[in-house]
C-alpha cells in the first residue's frame, strides 16, 4: 500500500513538473489567486494569436496591453472591479505543426486567493469564445494546483 501511495505521489509530482516546465506554478511572489492552463492546438501559432487577439478585443471586460507574435498580455476587469493580469504565450510545435499555448491569469489583490475560478474563466472564456477549442488536436491541461478554483468554476 505504501508503495502504491509513493507511486501515485511521484506521478502527480512529475505531471505537475511537466506541465509547469520545471518551474513553480505561480510566480514566487504570488499570494493572490492564479491559474495556469496549457493547450495544444493543431493550427499554426499565427492563427492562434490572431484568434485570441480578436476575441479579447470583442470582450468588453478585457484590455490589451501588449501583442507580439509569441505573447499576448491583457488585463481583465471583473464585474466588481477586480483586475487580473491575463497572458498567453505561444510556441510552435513540430510534431503536429500546431501551437503550444500557455495561459496565465493572476489576480492583482492578495485577498482574492479563493476567487471561485475567476482566473480559470478568464482564460477559458477567451479560448472558448475564439473557437479554438474546436480546432483539430485541441487538448487542455491544468489541475487545482496550477489553477485554483478550476474544479468548481462556473464560466
Automatic annotation (TrEMBL):
Signal peptide: 1-22
Keywords of this entry: Signal
Organism domain of life: Eukaryota
Protein name listed in UniProt: Immunoglobulin V-set domain-containing protein
Organism field: Oryzias latipes
Amino acid at each position: 500500500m505504501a508503495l502504491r501511495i509513493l507511486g501515485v505521489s511521484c506521478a502527480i509530482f512529475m505531471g505537475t513538473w511537466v506541465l509547469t516546465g520545471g518551474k513553480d506554478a505561480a510566480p514566487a511572489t504570488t499570494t493572490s489567486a492564479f491559474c495556469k492552463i496549457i493547450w495544444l492546438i493543431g493550427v499554426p501559432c499565427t492563427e492562434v494569436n490572431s484568434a485570441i487577439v480578436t476575441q479579447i478585443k470583442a470582450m468588453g471586460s478585457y484590455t490589451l496591453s501588449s501583442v507580439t507574435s509569441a505573447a499576448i498580455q491583457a488585463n481583465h476587469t471583473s464585474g466588481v472591479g477586480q483586475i487580473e493580469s491575463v497572458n498567453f504565450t505561444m510556441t510552435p510545435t513540430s510534431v503536429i505543426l500546431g501551437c503550444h499555448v500557455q495561459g496565465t491569469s493572476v489576480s492583482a489583490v492578495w485577498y482574492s486567493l479563493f476567487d471561485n475560478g475567476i482566473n480559470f474563466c478568464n482564460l477559458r472564456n477567451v479560448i472558448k469564445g475564439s473557437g479554438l477549442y474546436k480546432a483539430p488536436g485541441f487538448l487542455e491541461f491544468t489541475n487545482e494546483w496550477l489553477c485554483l478554483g478550476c474544479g468548481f468554476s462556473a464560466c
